[in-house]
Amino acid sequence: MHTLLWSSAMELGHAGMDESHRLLFESLGRLARLADREFTPAWGALVQRLEADFREEEALMERLAHPGLRAHREQHASMLAPLHRATGALLRGDPAPARQALAQLPHWFVLHIVSMDLALAEAAANPLPPALRTASGPLHTYN
Ligand SMILES: [Fe+2]
Questions:
Q1: Cα(113) to centroid(ligand 1), Å
Q2: Domain coordinates of the chain in residue numbers?
């Protein structure tokens, strides 16, 4: 199986996100090498960890009134949906969908990191002044 490895070229300059992404890629590599018996509980832990990481990013976007919150949240949900379906198959004794999703995850994450997460890291480095933040996003957007 071909696996993408973490590279410092994927760093965004946001220490928390960079560390989370590095650890994620390490865990994907470990998980891919597990036999089915150990794979099932490790898969569950991976999905929980992704859910927690995504919630953390979404909380940061809410604090920043990040204009990309909705699209970013939708992409997180789109990534989690096949993982949840694969969890169902895994619990019914079929590891194939989870193994296939695991092989795709590094590719999905590279695309996500260089698009959505990069925009978030830039917003975190240059936050709007508090007076311009609202619950639904910035008061003014530029077209
Ligand atoms: Fe993200």
A1: 7
A2: 14-123
